[in-house]
Model the fold of this input.
Amino acid sequence: MRNASDPTSDSTSDPTSDSTSDPTSDPTVRTDAGSRGRAVLLAKGIGLLVLAAAVLSFPSLAPDAFILSVGVVIMSYAVLATSWNFVGGFTGYISLGHAAYSGLGAYATALLVIHTSLNPWVAMLLGGLLVAALAVPIGIASLRVRGASFVIVSIAMVLILLLVFQSWGEVTGGSNGLRVPRPFDESVLRPEQHERFFYLHVALLAVALLTWWAIDRSRFGTGLKAIREDEDKAQSLGVPTFNYKLVAFIVSAFFTALGGGMYALWFGFLDPIFQFSILVGSYMVLMSLLGGIRSLFGPLLGAVIVGYAVEFFKNQYGDTQFHLVAMGLLLGIVVLFMPDGIIPALSSLINRFSPQAASIREVSAGELAEQRRAAASEGKDLDATEAEPTDSLPEGAKR
Amino acid sequence: MTESAGSTATDTRIGLATEGLTKRYGGVTAVDGASVQFHHGKVNALIGPNGSGKTTFFNCVTGMIKPDSGRATYLGDDITGKASHRIARAGIGRSFQLCRIFPRMTVMENMLVAVRSTSLRHVLAPSRSAGELDRARELLARVGIDHLENSEARDISYGQQKLLELAGVLMADPETIMLDEPAGGVNPALIDRIASLVRDLNAEGKTFLIVEHNMELVMSLSDHVVVFDRGRQICEGPPSVVQNDPRVLEAYLGI
Amino acid sequence: MSLFFQSVVLGVLLGGLYALLAAGLTLYFGVMRVVMIAHSAFLILSAYLAWWFTTETGLDPLLSLVVTVPLFFVAGVLMQRLLISRLRPATLTMMSVLLTFSVALVIEGMLGFVFSGTQRRIRLPYSGDSLELFGANIAVVKLIAFGLAAVSLGALFLILKKTQFGQALRATIQHPDAARLIGINTDRIAGYGFGLGLATAAIGGTALALDSTIYPSLHWHWIGPLMAIIVVGGLGSIPGAAIAAMLLGLGQSLLQIPLGTTWAQTIFYLALFATLMVRPQGFFGGRLAQRF
Done:
């Protein structure tokens, strides 16, 4: 509609689009899309309610204390994966060493509780803030250069902290571990403890998700996503890329540390080898990637799947080398075959079956665009046929 | 300045300028002491044979790469070696050769990336505010792709992507717009549309700096032409003068 | 004083091995911008193969190189062709990290599965022998390991400098687009580059097996220092990596006297952070990278 009334566009010979075959330029489709938008919103609202109800009713449905504790572990993973996704999902910078921040948060909380008379929850918050402060220099060092250094520093952080926490025995308890006093006294029984911590983790998760959502729809979030797609281009549009990445990284470290701190208070015992573990860091990556790093609930979904699988295997077969292999294979498969995760795959499946589906024509147009870019990046000159309407492209794409 | 298609004044104000700008890659000197002045408020063109350092010059001026020596100024302010987001906010927007858009964001999201202010309130505000959306739709309509608002940018045609890139740059409201081969790889009808957009925007006061190989377009569109060869300016002036300069022919024919 | 001298010699010997392994890592990064996390996992795999070869046949572990070097070269080429090249160029660096990381996990897991988590060590007739060198006491196996590393590094240098393949490889590292324009098949070169990189891991692993106790998760102790080395040396520069390896190996060895082995390792990470803060492009990359 806007198109027709626009003086700059010549409706008879629009050079960029074949207006007769384009469904979105048809006014009737537009209003359809409007009502469909409302329906989607409603479906989303209902989905959210169902999800919340399912999560909140879990403790009362869990048959025994063990299953309940698995639930706590999964929620803890969900907090960590969602926190990881602040940097991984928005900016596309993959950190394999986020266990460094959960581990630091756990130890900071534990040491504050042990050595000061702080309330454990205040200690946890303070621990999170301390880790966030530490993330500033780490972020400055690793985010100035693109990509590779960030990954290298992320791995180095876990390895160095493992070294330090194992060796610095008089403070951290070293390899003997560190016992963390419980926030609830002994009269609260085991299942009751699990139940409380389940809800506490859910609350923390909700805060993290809300923050992610708020960033996602802000200008800041748009800038971060632009960095993920093309960092140079984003910067040329005025996005202060380094500052944006740094802030996202600090927020991520903060929530990861809170997740670690809460885990410490629940589990009550810390061992460097499990806290500063590359494996824990890679769980966060796998969970987020599997669920979908571009989706709000992707990491949560991934945490439920991977967390359940991990606990199941541990329970059935114990801690064997086999689960390293399984973990490696699963990560490799996800990276190679479904780097976008389950949620985008599902939503495109749903789109395919709905009547307003993104048609096959559009999908192939996208692929053609990709091929053209690949051809272009090989330094070949683009000829004029490339700007023809997408329907007539296959000739050009055969090259 | 002899010919002037500009709508306002006939006097020449220097906008973007460089002095002895140099960039080397290993043994190759891509930009070799280039001293260039572009006219503010006009349509400037930068032409030259392939490999004459035009794109490298572009990248040095817009902060994508750091020059080895020399100076770049914009309206008298030193912008040498500044980060590209600072240069963008100083009022210089740019497009890229071969067109760079954010492929996995929607057309509308592409429009909302441009940053005009770094105040915390601006940054943390929802990016889809009514004002922003209206502005974006207006610009999309202006380049003629507003019906594609919700498509993913990778799904639209190459010509549409070029228009989207231009519209996205306009969202930042730059005074000066640098276009790297705006007519590269697009069909004649679209070239006409881009040319008329440039003319209209220039009439509204935007300065243009265009790197282009399509001579017909350059000569019809620009007020001021700078010719590059081997990383430095060999000639400048209005199109009619440059066209007949023997040095230009020499550079292109490689005599 | 002799303790100091001993540390210097040990540092140089260790630095040689680091240099060889870091050269491999640099090759992957150079040809494909890939941070190859599995490098040290292959190192340990090769060490296990050497150990297994010796315990099964009773022959010298150095002989296992005849099999492992070609095997690893082929594995490298296949890994590049079948796995790495499938990734989208836009996200190559990040996704390749995950992919090679998952390979590392699989190797570690399989080693644990097949050989169990028990610590292993090769017993050789000359294991306990050592040489007196200006008052320093140097184990023969360490000298052999260093010799192996030095010879391999020299060979690698000659391949890169003198052969046509080496020229193509260097061109691919420095400017892949230009290399493609002058007719170099950069995909194939990248595959061979990967193969060469893994071959260094095969040699390094055998050298490691001579005088170290090995266990499946040992590779994590190697990947951190190696990563630090290639950043300090300037990503993509082989001479830079070699110099950084020597300096940091020496530093680690010297710091072991006052601080002990664990804390001495932190020198790698301190150097890594210092480099990124002061000179993110690395210390020896710039000028040398162009000459190489």
Notes: Confidence is low (pLDDT under 50) at residues 286-292 of chain C.
